[in-house]
Design a protein that fits this description.
Largest sheet of chain B: 2 strands, antiparallel
Structural class of chain A: mainly beta
Number of strands of chain A: 10
Order of helices and strands of chain B: EEEEHHH
Largest sheet of chain A: 6 strands, antiparallel
Oligomer: heterodimer
Order of helices and strands of chain A: EHEEEEEEEEE
Number of helices of chain A: 1
Radius of gyration of chain B: 13 Å
Number of domains of chain B: 1
Strand order of the largest sheet of chain B: 1-2
Number of helices of chain B: 3
Shape of chain B: globular
Largest interface: A-B, 26 and 28 residues
Shape of chain A: globular
Helix content of chain B: 25-40%
Number of strands of chain B: 4
Distance between the termini of chain B: 21 Å
Strand content of chain A: 25-35%
Distance between the termini of chain A: 11 Å
Structural class of chain B: alpha+beta
Radius of gyration of chain A: 15 Å
Chain lengths: 134, 75
């Protein structure tokens, strides 16, 4: 997933080029699941799966806990991210948000869409999510 | 009448049915995600502790009975 939200890209550019201090991300960063509808773009959040079963919209599951060590301009999950007791849905993408009181969207990406049966466990295995800047 | 559940093939036993499963995203060299499915009992049989715990807590039931257990357990 190499799609950085525009606000975050600006934030990083300013910090990298000593134009302004970086506005820190509030840990942990969370994965939210996106369904068909509004497509995620750099400036617009996608359509998130609504709360149902074991999924809570606006929260998702922690990505921070699953991430390995960044190297060579990218970082990959080294453990699974698990959503248990899913509601029936079709997932088309994911977004990464921080845990600020008003959560800030950081990354987004489309994935191979998948139809999910009610009650299924949806698991992103170790190594299945990579965020890259190079 | 509730919506029918989608059919999927268990990667372990290769049975195609609508039973609840663990649905796993696997990374591929191209960067795309490949989805695979496993019955929870099949997943437990190859060493998944989470699925073993789930199946045990449900008393070993399968299919709609297992789905009902999963959905009730999280309420």
């Amino acid at each position: 997933m190499s799609n950085l939200v525009a606000v975050e890209a600006t934030n990083m550019l300013n910090a990298s080029l000593a134009k302004a201090s970086y506005t820190a991300t509030t840990s942990p960063v969370m994965i939210r699941l996106m369904v068909s509808g509004t497509t995620s773009t750099a400036s617009t959040a996608g359509s998130e799966l609504t709360t149902g079963g074991g999924y809570t919209a606006g929260t998702g599951q922690s990505l921070t806990a699953a991430l390995g060590t960044a190297s060579g301009g990218s970082i990959t999950t080294t453990s699974a991210v698990v959503f248990s007791n899913m509601p029936a849905c079709t997932i088309v993408g994911i977004e990464v948000w921080d845990s600020n009181a008003t959560p800030v969207r950081k990354w987004f990406g489309s994935i191979t869409s998948t139809v999910v049966a009610a009650g299924n466990t949806l698991q992103f295995n170790s190594g299945s999510i990579t965020l890259s800047l190079s | 009448m509730s919506e029918p559940h989608p059919m999927s093939e268990c990667r372990i036993c290769h049975q195609v049915d609508d039973h609840p499963k663990k649905q796993m995203a696997n990374g591929t060299p191209s960067g795309a995600i490949e989805w695979t499915f496993r019955h929870h009992d099949c997943c437990a049989s190859v060493g998944c502790n989470d699925c073993a715990d789930l199946v045990s807590a449900a008393g070993g039931v399968k299919g709609d009975d297992l789905r009902n257990h999963i959905q009730k357990a999280s309420v």
